[in-house]
C-alpha cells in the first residue's frame, strides 16, 4: 500500500483554494427590485433594480413593457419609453418612465454581464392600479 503525503506548501495551497471566495465565478443576478415581482402599486415614478455584483456598464440592457390594460383583453405589448441610470455602486440601476404609467400590467426585462463576462438576464412583472 502506497501512502501519498502532501507537502506543507501543497496543503496550504489546497486550503487557500478551498477557502477562497467564489463570487468572481458567479453570474450577476437580480437580488431585489422596487416594485417587487408581482407587486400591485398605486403610483410609480421609477423602478429600482439591485444586483448581486457590479455590472459591466456597456453590457447592461433594460426595458419596460406594458403587457396588459384593464378592459382591453386584446391589448398588444407596448414598449414604454424610459431613461435608465446605473447607480454609483455599479450594482444598482434606476429606470424612470418618461411619462406617468397608466393602470395596467408591466414587465421589466434586463440583461447584463458581471465580472465573469457571461450575459445573464431575467424579467418580472408588476401591476399599477
Describe this structure in words.
There is one protein chain. This protein is mainly beta and 129 residues long. The chain has one domain (24-128): Immunoglobulin-like (Sandwich). The protein is 9% helix and 42% strand. It contains 1 helix and 9 strands; from the N terminus they run H-E-E-E-E-E-E-E-E-E. It has one helix at residues 8-19, and strands at residues 30-34, 40-41, 47-51, 61-68, 78-80, 82-86, 92-97, 104-113, 119-128. The strands form 2 sheets. The protein has a 5-stranded mixed sheet, with no helix packed on it. Strands 1-3-7-6 form a 4-stranded antiparallel sheet, with no helix packed on it. A hairpin with a 5-residue loop joins strand 6 (82-86) and strand 7. The longest helix is centred in the first third of the chain and has 12 residues, at 8-19. It is elongated. It starts with 7 loop residues before the first helix and ends with a strand. The relative contact order is 0.25.
